Amino acid sequence: MKRFAFIALLLSSCFIATAFSQQTITLGFTVSRTGALNVDSVEQYRGFELWRDQVNAAGGIKAGGKNYKVQFASYDDESNSKRVQQLYTRLILEDKADFLFSPYSSSLTATAAVVTEQNEKIMLTTGAAEEKTYKLGNQCLYQMFAPATQYLTVAIDALKAKDPKATVAFVYEDASFSVAVVTPAKAYAQQQGFNVVFSEAYAPNTTDFGAIIDKVIGSKATVLLGGGHYADGSTLARQLYGHKVPLKMITLLVAPDSPQWAELGDAAVGVIVPSQWEPQSTFKAQYGPSGADFGKAYTAKYNTPPSYESAGGYASGLILQRAIEQAGGIDTAKVAAALNATDVTTFYGRTKFSTQPSEHGLQVGHAIFLAQWQKDKSGKPVKQVIWPLAGKSADLVYPIH
Amino acid sequence: MILRRPLLWLILLLAALFAWLPLHGNNVSLREDLILVALAIILTSNLNLMIGYTGYVNFGHIVFYGLGGYVGVYLMTVRGWHLVPSAVTAGFAVSLMALLFGLGILRLRGAYFALATIGVLVAVQSFVSNFEPWGRSTGMYVSFESYAPLGGPRHALWTTYFLIVAVMALSLILSLGIKASKFGLGLFAIREDEDAAIVLGVNATIYKAIIYSVSAFLPAVAGTLMFFKNGTIDPSIAFEFMLSLEGIVMLMLGGQGTVAGSALGGGLYERLRSYLLTSPRLSEFHLVIAGALLLLVIRLAPGGLIGWLYRLVPRSREVIE
Amino acid sequence: MSGIFASMIDGLLIGSVYGLAAMGLSLIWGVMDVINLTHGAMIALGMFGMYLLFNATAINAYLLLAPMIAGGLILGVIIYWLAVNWVVDRPILMSLLSTFAVNMMVIGIGTAIWSTSPYNVDFSVPGITVGEYTFTGNHMFAALSAVLIALLLEMFLRRTRTGKAIRAVADNRDAAELMGISSTRVLMVAFAIGIALAVASGALVSTLFPFTILSGAGYQLKSFVVTVLAGLGKPFGALVAGVLLGLLEGAVSPFIAISWIPLIEFGLFVLVLIVFPRGIFSRATA
């Protein structure tokens, strides 16, 4: 009886001890659970979620002698910026979020940034590659994605190595992100000596690409670069295939990175996507899990391999965790200082933020991959890394057919 | 005399409450909720001038709000104008445009007019999506420097909020003023029987064009203010067809043709949508619930909430108009 | 073959699907003076219906049109009693709102089930290649099916007793009632056919392009344009107007960026409304 009482005392003192050092940290963000951005945004969310579950299972973030359990506060932004400010204000003031993640997409992030900035809350942005937002004088934004300029210039480098005489067509979504990608890419292609024979932007909700495809055929282009997000990119690829457009290379933004892309069947094969991260990438992680471990845990939880949006989501959590640990607590100024000083390689690659006042928070460490959908031995479409050559898992298939 | 109308004082009281409540205790979260309520009231009460007073269903009402936003944001970011002159200029510019459109499409009646307004909305959206100076589909960003003349973003958002509340009060007072005027009587005559009204000497063409143009002014001003606050503007958020339809829903909910009804419907609907969206259990079904509610209202209380109140307390008609 | 011909043939093919989509709207509007705002949602349901049926049976998607149309008729009857019957003689705003309410509910339920991600009916018929241009078999079959359904409807309206009753009610409901035609039953049948047409056109579209639960809205807008070009209550005229609209898209698209096309289409729509408020094809202005 006495021993029992002793154990009970010991146990309860343990609880009291943990109650003192155990704290929670709230991270706020919106997810596009409905609307046009739904596929990409939910993949990003799963990255956040996996990170949270792993951190909490390991006892929380340990900083300054305390354990911080991570909890989320999130709402559906309906892929529409109308309510983003209302929701982020709510996250900051009512849900008392300590730190924020961005919504998915450059334009929603720009709207959210107006609110986070005036509340001086740190927001790690993922799925928001466009540079403009970071050049408006924001102080509390930290970009996890490599900036938009890189996406297609990398593809042009790969093309130059293979076929410097190719004729190029740009067909892209008329939205902030894709315009920010294509504008510098077009100039770069011309500078590299390519003949850009056709260039047209289509409205974000386009489903019938028949007219554009007829024009691409008429222009005699051999290479098509462009796309936008999932819905339009998958539609475009399917119709290019259906119309048997004689293209040697197709590079589309964002859409082909999703595992769902394989559902397009034969239309999926050969398409290249500029990617922030691929499961095959073999970075030596100085911090956090290896790429293989991340991929395994993700696949086990969601029954689908991670896309780069998922990796970006997970990495955002990781970078924030590291900054909190180094700051020894959740004080915003100290965490900001730690983020400013961040220069680390994780499974996701290198992460370093610009500290120039004119472009504060812009990602300067991370670089873009190219991945191509190829048939494996059993004829199933799989994604292979083809660029940079140093990290490739397969050779570029050129021309596609 | 409008000053003798009790509703005028209720409107001023409402505006004062809107201004005071969030300021009291610096409740920014409440402010963000109320600004959307105020916007809903602005859109609904101006829409009421067309639908409720004149009997013309405008499906594309949101085009005024969006165009106003574009003109204003353009003046501020590209031309470097101050917020208030930009908003007022946007109001006049859009009103003028509405007058021109109105003289064309107001020859149509009933459903044909309603369809033409959809056509105007889609055509304008498509034009703006291709218009280079306004950034095509990408739209425009408000740079942080634009907030500087108003004392930085934090201060600027409060200023914007008070301005929106003022526009809300003006919208309601405008509705009340028109209702009390001879001009308003002419509109009601058009609503009841346009041909008879013409016989009685109402110049229907001019009346309709003027009210169409007037109903554009304050939504356009609100557009500038809201998109300035939003930080970005692009065609898909500026000309959202859904928002246009929701405006009609709000009006019906409150009671078309009445000043108080448009405010009540706008306010309630917006709060309901917000609540459903942020409620963890119901957020999946917010559209279903809003739809079912609408169906019930038009079936059980076709006069809206105000119509129901009139039936319940007939004397309320004299105060709540 | 030159680009403009290819582009116009594509326009012709897709135009007949626009036409079919508009026929339902036109029929309902003409017969009962109700602008059916559930139209887009019904087109979307047609897309998802086809997706589910095709995945369950895996037979030729165009054979599945028959059960889809049957399902559409049933759906039409349900919606008629839920939201339309009691607004038929009320001001137009009431019918707009009650159908819009149903639209919101359908879209809401659809979003809860399928979210707003794109879906895809993985069925393709080999196409015909002329020079460097290929016309997909799906486009040709869809156009053919649309024309066939339109012809069947026209025959139904002209040859059968119910069809004649629908036309009589459309012409003059009071007179039809005096002749002993039960207008409620006729209106219900007309509404159900209108919904079935929307469902069928959605099913056809789903074999051409990926779709989401929100995809119907764009076709609803196009249906408005087509209906007005054709004049109300002229289902077959709607098919012709749809084809013309497709041809117009095909003819202008080689010369301008396609993002300008909605401006041309809807600008034209407003102009036609103002100049010929009763439709291009009708001479009588009663």
Task: Please give a structural write-up.
The complex is a heterotrimer of chains A (401), B (321) and C (286). Chain A is an alpha/beta fold and 401 residues long. Chain A has 2 domains: 224 residues, Response regulator (Rossmann fold, 3-Layer(aba) Sandwich); 150 residues, Rossmann fold. In chain A, helix 3 packs across helix 4 and helix 5 packs parallel to helix 6. Chain A is globular, with a radius of gyration of 23 Å. About 3% of the residues of chain A have low confidence. Chain B has one domain. Chain B has 14 helices and 2 strands; from the N terminus they run H-H-H-H-H-E-H-H-H-H-E-H-H-H-H-H. In chain B, helix 4 packs antiparallel against helix 9. In chain B, 56% of the residues are buried. With 286 residues, chain C is mainly alpha-helical. Chain C has a single domain, classed as ABC transporter involved in vitamin B12 uptake, BtuC (Orthogonal Bundle), CATH 1.10.3470. In chain C, 71% of the residues lie in helices and 2% in strands. Chain C has a two-stranded antiparallel ribbon. Chain C is globular. The N and C termini of chain C lie far apart (47 Å). The mean pLDDT of chain C is 86. Chains in contact: A-B, A-C, B-C. The interface between A and C is large, with 37 and 38 residues.
Structural class of chain C: mainly alpha
CATH topology of the largest domain in chain A: Rossmann fold
Instruction: Report the count of strand segments of chain A.
Output: 15
When the domains of chain C are counted, the total is: 1
Strand-residue fraction of chain C? under 5%
